[in-house]
Amino acid sequence: MKFGVVLLPGSNCDHDALHVAKDVLGADAEPLWHKDTDLKGADCVIVPGGFAYGDYLRAGALAKFAPIMEPIRRHADAGGLVLGICNGFQVLTEVGLLPGALMRNQHLRFLGRDVHIRVEETDTPFTSLYERGQVFRVPIAHGEGNYYADDETLDALERNRQVIFSYSDEEGRLTSDANPNGSARNIAGICNRARNVVGLMPHPERCSESLLGGASGLLMFKSIAASLARV
Amino acid sequence: MSSANIDIEITSEVIASHGITPDEYQRIVEILGRAPNYTELGIFSVMWSEHCSYKSSRVHLRNFPTSGPRVVQGPGENAGVIDIGDGYVAAFKMESHNHPSFIEPYQGAATGVGGILRDIFTMGARPIACLDSLRFGELDAPRMKYLVDGVVRGIGGYGNCIGIPTVGGETSFHASYNGNILVNAFALGVTKREKIFKGTASGVGNPVIYVGSKTGRDGIHGATMASAEFDEASEEKRPTVQVGDPFTEKLLLEACLEIMDSDADTDSPVEGIQDMGAAGLTSSSFEMAGRAGTGVRLQLDRVPVRESGMTPYEIMLSESQERMLIVAKRGREDEVVRTFEKWDLNASVIGEVTDDGFVRLFWHGEEVAAIPVDPISTEAPVYDRPMSKPVVGAAALSGTATAEGSGRHKEDVDHSDTLLRLLATPNLSSKHWIFEQYDTTVRTNTIAGPEKRDAAIIRIKETGRALAITSDVNPIYCSLDPYEGGKQAVAEAARNVAVSGARPVAITDCLNFGSPERPEIMWQFAECIRGISDACRALETPVVSGNVSFYNETEGRAIPPTPTVGMVGWMESERDGCGLAFTDADLDVILLGDSRDELGGSEWQQLFAPDAIARPPRVDLGLERSLIELLLSLHASKLLRSAHDVSNGGVAVALAEMSTNGIGCHVDLLGHADALDATALLFGESQARAIVACAASDRDRVLDAANQHGIAALRIGHTAFGTFLIERNGAPLVRTTAQELTRVWRTAFALLLGGDTIDDVLRGVGEEAPEVMAH
Description:
A: Rossmann fold; about 25% strand; B: seven-stranded mixed sheet; disordered C terminus
């Protein structure tokens, strides 16, 4: 079982993802250079947070042309696991592995704070160890996290149970006050139809150790490990 | 001398426009043995600018203590370095970017962050945390909201993108900064002890390599701009402000650390490295040759440029960002070039190290400048400028004036409204509107970010230990008594570090003052340095790096003396220490230290008696030291559940800040400074005090420890859900709720920024400013 963490120019959460996978979870993990076309045998590819290509043009827009994206697409098409966190989520929507887009936060400012999210679905390889409806605190840090899709797409996402995480209050209510960036229907994270590709704006890797104020994010990494162990 | 220099004749006007005095020009002629050409004149002007040469400050900076058991590198390099154990070191420094930030706040602040980060990774250390110390004018002063917004966006825009967390700092507001804001950026990085790199051009024949962004015309004479005061024409200086590109700097950071082998144990091809900051290629080449006692020859036509037609003068003086100068080991330049090309960055061999002691510049084969390295620093002007004690300082020092004012009460009346008003001021309200625009948690090392403890706490993954970092100064104290103010800045920083659970180790400083050509400013400067030096000696926290920013004045009005102190403390275990907010009900609340009638310079005085001139609090360094040792022993014994120092706003504000997480307190101050009137008791800012919370069963151990350390200690009450009640002998002095004071404290800043008044905030009628409101 092996994680591959994509290193795009401007990625800045690659070390954090590698740290959790290797040092906290104890799994095998390796960086994947953006100019390479080899996933080095990774079972789960993580596209980490950061500002790939400076987010110039718009977040994720240039990253989709990186050579590493082609094998990632093939990996996903073959049912391999792909996780996009923050900027990685933006990249996966630009690449077309996930529907919708991430627009500028509604209040037009970068926002870094702890929020609460509710786990909507547990029948994915990324969330199997969570309880359905479980609420946990997790940091966000982004300027473009306002999830957008047209109503038809949003309805389809809900119908197919592709909304994986929603912004909620501490009690799990999806209020507008709990929505930090204006995301449609409080969406914080989604998966594809086949449920093997997930993107989310919050940072589970930043709350995977109690020393840092919470370890609920580690369950995502443990879920991935558990699902890969079953294969 | 050359076609590249012919256009401009050196007239007295040209000399004056370069900020060079007739005396200094004579010195240049003596050093060169001839008149300089235009390129050479430009080089001298930036090298001898106040910003680069420290010509007015040097005689005073010598007084700083700079050595100690943990000091690995003191002042003189790109950053100071301290030993943090287990074979690791921390490099840190603070620098000002005041002038550019006032002219163009976003880019000024952004490039301030970029510059200080380069100072850290040029030492071979990976930056892991930033702080920012910001001083603004009154919120309703012209342009001020624009400046606040631009500076905050600029800091976030750069730091967030490059992925270094901004974990703390301080922001305050005072009318005396209306014409000159201050942006002081601090950064800290970590590396292995044997992996420290220095800015030296050693090894004759070694290649000199230019890496990073191309050189453009931006920032020419930025250092000179930062060495003059503002006037009505300052707006025209906008083109001297550099433009930052954090994406390129991120690539530069990774490429530099890779070529310096920060993670590997192989021998690096890098001999020396220095960033091109203020004065760009000029200062990097002269300083690197100067440190090594060598010379360099540079082929300026090989410098990658952004636009055609750039002259040697412009190339040498450009302050384009995200550039570094590397001296590689001979024969290994290809390794350097390959690494930078891997990261899609320019790398160009532009010259070599020589042994003739000159920086020689060539343009298409022709020598266009030749300046001896040593004299440009050793023969640089050093001014021991005249000093005199200003009138305002004298009045305060005489001790005759006292802080009386409309709100001062001798009787034990209700002060609830006073407390809430103070919590609603720009200075004391929560700054989450600011720090939520920063990424505070990237790199997964942030144990305590902004407003969690009195210092930010960053773990060191490699060692399981942690560092505490803080920046502090009270400019109002410094203006009233610069010596005590200088002492206080160090003492408060040390207290913030210790109360958070770490042992104070060393400081960097950023000394912001008005024009050194005015005797009263020089007196303030010397007095602040004397105070800082005395405190650093007493608390054993040497100065390892720093920066001086003079000429912070507009049309003759100077800022108050603002010697910002950035302190680093060391924590044996990443699990040490505790937060400042109360965590549970029914804990004992204990007040440590003594209180005196010290409202001079306080937040209370600024709000209720702004015209009063009174002595600021005295700093007893022996007591500060005892309090620090006490706090460290209490933390070591794991007795504390919450701990907070008493500083701006006094005991009442400290208790309120501890009560912003749902749990308040019920205290009675009888038995503590009973002779003081209620106003001084609640809001006086006597030093060497702290408030701690502990389990009732640990109370006696805490009180005993305080007794052993010679620190007064009194159990004043207990924590309680929702309650906020301060009494004296049963008479209420403040009666509100934790919820109400938290609402005021948390909402005030955004509301004030949106144009509301403190009365609006207290009434709670104003809506939170739409732009900061969640959907």
